[in-house]
Amino acid sequence: MSFIHFTIGEFACKCGCGANRIDEELVRRLDWIRAAYYPWTLNVSSGYRCAARDRAVGGNGNHPTGLAADLIVSKGARLRDFILACHAAGIPRIVLYHNLPHVHVDMVPNRPEGIYIR
Ligand SMILES: [Zn+2]
Ligand SMILES: [Zn+2]
To answer: Which of 19, 27, 74, 81 has the least CB density, counted as fewest CB within 10 Å?
Structure first.
């Protein structure tokens, strides 16, 4: 599968192990968001993480499923547009952080759906 904006390589584990089991459907939806709905920069700060990397950064197992990504999204109106686009694209879970610059999105099954602030 090829994408307009993203490459699968952008979602590889950043620990240096080179592993990348990112889910292509997640990337497809993010690509659609960026192409159709959010025509601004969307940098991947974390995509797939191996289990060791996830532990090292205090993750809770979402990224090792390949169904989660962290993105740098502009705040204000653009953040609103991004969230609306996530809903339109069928991305069920969004987490915003008070003290971290990225927005977490995931499609991990059997987790509560909605927008969360941590
Ligand atoms: Zn790794
Ligand atoms: Zn995340």
So the answer is: 74
Looking at this protein, which amino acid is placed at residue 54?
A: D
Report yes or no on 1 lying in a domain: no
Distance 76 CA to ligand 1 centre (A): 33
Question: Do the domain assignments include residue 35?
Answer: yes
What global pTM score does this model have?
Answer: 0.94
* CA neighbor of 105 nearest in space, from 33, 14, 6, 56: 33
Per 3-state DSSP, the chain is made up of helix, strand and coil in percentages (nearest 5) of 35, 20, 45
Summarize pLDDT for 36-67 with one digit per residue, the tens.
888 888 999 999 999 999 999 999 999 999 99
Domain count of the fold of the chain: 1
> How far, in Å, from the CA of 17 to the mean position of ligand 1?
4
Q: How many Å lie between the centroid of ligand 2 and the Cα of residue 53?
A: 12
